[in-house]
User: Fold this.
Amino acid sequence: MFRSLKPTVLLEIFLHLLFWAFITFMPILSGPFGPRGFFSPWHLVLINTLLAIQFYLNAFVLIPIFISEKKKLWLYFVLMLTCFIVLNQVIIHTRPPMPFFPGFQRAGFPPKPPFMANFNLLQLAAITAAAFVYRYLADRFRKINNEHDIANAALVSELAFLRSQVSPHFIFNAINSAVALARLNPAAVEPTLIQISQLLRHVLYLSDQEKITMRQKADYLSSYVHLQKLRFGEQIKVTCNIHIAAPEKTLEPMLLISFVENAFKHSCGNTGEAEIRINLVSDEKKLDLSVYNTYNPDVARQDEHHGIGLHNVKRRLALLYPNIHQLCISQFENTYQVILQIQFK
Assistant:
């Protein structure tokens, strides 16, 4: 039975038991309980048992039914008053005779205190107030946890949707590369298709993983750059430097490729000298990616799908690496540069 309970629930049960055990047995272990003591151990256990019943009856039954739902508040106060009277009478009539010093009896004091002295209003009111505080905090934390669960579920769904858009986007670009190469350099089609098949293998198998290593990511980027070099040849001057000091570090798949794809996509329409510079450096703590490319602003404005891939990756970075990434995009008259830094978790 306990195996099916969450660790937080088991911890809460343990803390409740520890609290009631502490307030029950601490006075018994530290106080004098003899013929001249004010309480007997069994009566102290009975009092705390009654207070515990009052606490949990309020916290888990009466308050959720009458207060939280705002139904028949008058009935709640009637039940509370009834509980106060009943518990008070039980505590009084089960209490052993309270010993008094002989001088008190000679002075005319009765062997038992009067009724109002026996009225346990303070401790009953305190335990009722504690039940209100506990119920409020428990409901508040439960509401916060539910909101977090809903938000996390929404983030998971959004990430799954964003990642599902990456693969078709890449396949579309890869097919365009093969078609363009078949027209310009038919002899290079076969090695290009082999390169595309390797990249597709990466997309189909590795992109479904939650994380991939920096070594796998570097290999993928190198293969993609090599494919684009086969496609464009001397049309674009490409410089690619990759240095991975900690290849075992992991990162979300298909996260960096969008910046590189964007660079090749817009450099190919440049009427002047096209150039792309890619630098990827990572160590134990972080990775730094810099992608620089020239582009033709007129061609970029005519592209109705311009910016979709960048919007996708920006959103994924915000969801996956909040507060531990920096993305700077600089756009000038005919140059475009992306600088990304991600701190490894």
Q: What stands out?
A: Strands lie at 212-213, 236-244, 250-251, 274-282, 286-294, 325-331, 335-343. Residues 121-184 form the longest helix (64 residues).
